[in-house]
Write a structure and sequence with these properties.
The complex is a heterodimer of chains A (411) and B (390).
Chain A (H helix, E strand, L loop, with lengths): L32 H8 L3 E4 L6 E2 L16 E3 L3 E10 L5 H4 L4 E8 L4 E6 L8 E8 L5 E7 L10 H6 L7 E4 L5 H12 L4 E6 L9 H6 L3 E5 L5 H11 L5 E4 L16 H27 L10 E7 L10 H21 L5 E7 L17 H14 L3 E4 H13 L1 H7 L1
Parallel strand pairs in A: 6-8, 9-10, 9-12, 10-11, 12-13, 13-14, 14-15
Antiparallel strand pairs in A: 1-2, 1-3, 4-5, 4-7, 5-6, 7-8
Helix pairs in contact in A: 4-9, 6-7, 7-8, 10-11
Chain B lengths: L11 E12 L6 H16 L8 E5 L8 H7 L6 E4 L6 H15 L4 E8 L5 H7 L3 H6 L7 H17 L3 H16 L12 H6 L2 E3 L2 E2 L8 E10 H6 L4 E11 L17 H8 L8 E3 L5 H10 L8 H7 L15 H5 L6 H13 L13 E10 L4 E11 L1
Parallel strand pairs in B: 2-3, 2-4, 9-10
Antiparallel strand pairs in B: 1-7, 1-8, 4-7, 5-6, 8-11, 10-11
Classes of the chains: A alpha/beta (411), B alpha/beta (390).
Chain lengths: 411, 390
């Protein structure tokens, strides 16, 4: 059984910080089809659309009928673990410092044999459940898990390399004034984060939920105004080396398209808080996070962004805000690439309208802020990259994938 | 399976076995090693580059060149040119292709060469880019290289057939014994079964002495007509039968047998010999479990009985079942693709009576087997040849 993680001791400031290394990230273009599934926590392999053969490793033609480019589809993840080995020597720099490392061959019930990382709680002959994870290079890898949850399962050292579990990590929630910020702080505390720094600009100004926020265990209020470069820089200088997860909850939802508003004041505020706010966080905290990607049990591990799903397709009723969110979405893709050498993930949580005051006029379904907090923790625990919370977010995502032009007309 | 009769190899021979002594690390390119092998062949057969009208090469480290670039590099103008990138099956496959070319009159004198260099760190580079499936679906998983892949095959074989580490150890210890008498072997320290058992684990159940040591080196031979070999005064052997088969048993969830099984009856039938007639066996020994698979799949015992077979036989060159008589890759070293020639060149030396201190007495018929290319989870290429004293 997995040994439960022990809370790491205070770091010796005289010790050198181990620099992050990556496992090999080179993949064929076809194999990158697995990344899309891994990013969302699905288990998908190629399934021939002509003869239904399930194919692995990824191929450019079906080996049963030569049909070109079998598409990736969700497949049943169960299988039998045929053999395992514990690798004790490796030529690879990343694995060398993580030896020993277990891998095995799994015969999937749906057909193919798959070489995978093996969870410590399964052994030869066991039935297993496969999952796809993003490893520290950001690429998809197969992982064989116990069929049912085991005690301390998430603490398995190999699995924890693939995830961003908040347990014993220190998180920064950038804005505690928002309902989503308060929900995120609660969820991170519940998930075992050892400190939840919560940013407040102008702390003296009262706000709803103030007392409840301060009562959450392990919450520590810090001064932070994401619209102020100096404020962000000061906080990074103060606690940057102790922040392992950033959850950006700064928001500024305002209705209106491009013509409805007079002047640029509101649009500038949106961009200041959302887009430039993200950029300020990236500039001040990003390099420290990336540097600390292999810094022990509480290594730096993720930046979480909440994005309005109309970043994918503009909702004219919130037209200018959707445009800001599109800018943020694009920025996260750059951030993702910049953080990758550190093995630090950039997690995007897409949502539709929320049960908050600025979405007052929008009809249901709407997403409760607490659902976003829980989604953030779930994404961290599973090491996901893209999460769509609620019916609207999933609907827009599906329609954007199916026919973006049609969606543009319908919105 | 084809029912058309296969032609024999009458009149075509393999001649002039050459080994360029291996080095653990080399500062030279693969080209340098190929050049040394060509020079050794030329010296033996008194050939000039213009006399070589066929060239077959196997090498992992000759990139970015392929066989065609090497023609210019070495001043060759061949009318038969082959690049055999089949790793451990390279020797057998190069031989059978060259033999047919000579037989058909497409070439008269084919130089078959396998060579690789081994720079510090070149092994790691080879592993990470070995194949697309290795890159996509094996190397990212612990990066254990072939040790990890064969550990899984070995574990499954042990579970299925009850073979033990001691059984694998018998193969390794006998081969080290053979290597002590072979001048070119890199491993010159005697090995006991106790030392084998006590060695450090590399990737369980693979331990240190189950692994070959990557090194630099070259192996080569000529294929020509028997008449030409006689004129040149070359030592040569006859070719009785050959097979190759790739990606056999693709639905086996994990490999426990190889492609030899598919063509075995045709293989012996064509040679007109039985397993009992074989005086020495050279298996491809990247890991001892693979040698056991070959002993079974080539008909020396039933499937799953190789462990008791190796317990019942003396596998040294002095023994009742001479096997990997020069020490094999496990004790000579694995010079990349030259490892796929090692058994064939050694078998040729044995049948020509040129094996020196390792000479198997009265060796008339040898079986050489090749196995190679762990593309994803299993070795894909398999081949075998039966050759005979001239």
């Amino acid at each position: 059984m997995t040994e439960p993680l022990v809370k790491p001791k205070r770091k010796d400031p005289l010790k050198r910080t181990r620099l992050p290394l990556s496992p090999q990230g080179a993949r064929s273009r076809t194999a990158l089809g697995l990344v899309a599934a891994a990013a969302e926590g699905r288990f998908a392999l190629q399934v021939c659309d002509q003869c239904a053969k399930i194919v692995y490793p990824p191929r450019d033609a079906c080996p049963a009928c030569f049909a070109p480019a079998p598409p990736f589809r969700d497949v049943p993840p169960e299988g039998a673990l045929l053999a395992t080995t514990t690798i004790r020597t490796s030529t690879d720099t990343y694995y060398r410092e993580r030896m020993p490392w277990r891998v095995g061959t799994i015969r999937l019930d749906c057909g193919p044999s798959i070489v995978a990382h093996i969870h410590g709680d399964v052994s030869d002959g066991d039935r297993v459940r496969m999952s796809l994870h993003l490893d520290r290079s950001g690429q998809a890898v197969a992982f064989a898990l116990p069929l049912t949850e085991t005690p301390a399962m998430a603490d398995d050292p190999q699995l924890r390399e693939m995830t961003c579990d908040p347990k014993f990590r220190r998180a920064l929630v950038t804005d505690g004034r928002t309902a989503v910020g308060q929900a995120a702080a609660k969820a991170l505390s519940d998930a075992g984060a050892s400190i939840v720094f919560v940013g407040l600009a102008d702390e003296w100004k009262p706000f709803p939920g103030d007392a409840a926020l301060r009562a959450i265990p392990n919450v520590e209020i810090v001064p932070l105004d994401v619209t102020n470069s100096e404020s962000v820089g000061d906080l990074a200088a103060d606690i940057g080396g102790r922040v392992d997860i950033i959850v950006n909850t700064a928001e500024h939802v305002r209705p209106g398209g491009l013509m409805a508003r007079r002047g640029l004041v509101v649009a500038r505020e949106e961009m200041e808080i959302r887009y430039f706010g993200l950029m300020r966080l990236a500039q001040s905290f990003g390099p420290i996070l990336r540097m600390r990607g292999a810094d022990g049990v509480n290594s730096a591990t993720a930046i979480v962004n909440f994005l309005f799903v109309h970043a994918l397709a503009n909702l004219p009723e919130f037209g200018a805000y959707s445009a800001t969110e599109a800018a943020c979405l694009s920025a996260t893709h750059s951030l993702r690439s910049e953080l990758r050498p550190g093995g630090v993930k950039c997690i995007n949580i897409f949502h539709g309208p929320l049960e908050t005051e600025w979405f007052q006029t929008v009809p249901p379904p709407k997403v409760a802020p607490s659902a976003l907090g829980k989604a953030a923790v779930d994404a961290l625990r599973r090491g996901l990259e893209d999460v769509f919370v609620g019916d609207i977010a999933q609907d827009i995502r599906a329609r954007a994938a199916a026919n973006p032009k049609a969606l543009e007309r319908e919105l | 399976m084809s029912v058309r009769p296969r032609q024999n190899y009458n009149g075509v021979v393999a001649a002039a076995p050459v080994t360029i002594p291996y080095e653990r690390y080399s500062i030279h390119a693969a080209h340098w090693w190929i050049g040394r092998a060509l020079r050794a062949l030329a010296d033996l057969a008194r050939l000039k580059p213009a006399d070589i009208d066929g060239f077959s090469v196997s090498s992992f480290t000759v990139g970015p060149d392929t066989a065609i670039g090497l023609t210019q590099h070495f001043g060759l103008s061949p009318r038969f040119l082959d690049h055999v990138p089949l790793g451990g099956a390279s020797g057998v496959v190069a031989l059978r292709r060259a033999a047919r070319a000579v037989q058909a009159g497409d070439a008269d004198m084919i130089a078959c060469v396998a060579a690789d260099t081994n720079h510090v760190d070149s092994f790691r580079r080879t592993l990470s880019t070995f194949s697309r499936f290795a890159q996509d679906a094996v190397y990212p998983y612990g990066s254990g290289g072939p040790n990890a892949s064969f550990a899984l095959i070995t574990r499954a074989y042990m579970d299925r057939f009850g073979a033990t580490r001691e059984d694998f150890g018998r193969i390794c210890v006998a081969q080290r014994d053979n290597a002590l008498a072979f001048p070119h072997a890199l491993m010159k320290k005697p090995l006991t079964l106790a030392e084998y058992m006590d060695a450090r684990a590399i990737s369980d159940p693979i331990h240190l002495f189950d692994c070959v040591m990557p090194c630099a080196g070259a192996e080569a031979f000529l294929v020509c007509t028997e008449e030409r070999a006689r004129d040149l005064g070359l030592p040569f052997v006859r070719i009785l039968s050959t097979i190759e088969r790739h990606n056999a048993f693709m639905d086996d969830p994990i490999q426990f047998r190889g492609g030899w099984v598919v063509d075995l009856d045709a293989f012996y039938g064509h040679a007109g010999v039985k397993p009992d007639d074989v005086d020495l066996l050279q298996t491809y020994d990247d890991y001892p479990v693979i040698s056991m698979m070959q002993i079974e799949d080539l008909g020396f015992c039933k499937k799953g009985e190789a462990a008791s077979f190796v317990r019942a036989h003396d596998l040294t060159f002095r023994g009742d079942f001479p096997h990997n008589t020069s020490g094999g890759q496990l004790s000579v070293g694995q010079a990349g693709a030259a490892g796929g020639y090692l058994g064939l060149v050694e078998a040729m030396r044995q049948l020509c009576g040129e094996a020196g201190a390792n000479q198997v007495r009265d060796a008339e018929i040898a079986l050489v087997s090749g196995f190679g290319m762990i593309n994803y989870d299993r070795g894909l290429a398999s081949g075998a040849a039966i050759i005979a004293r001239a």
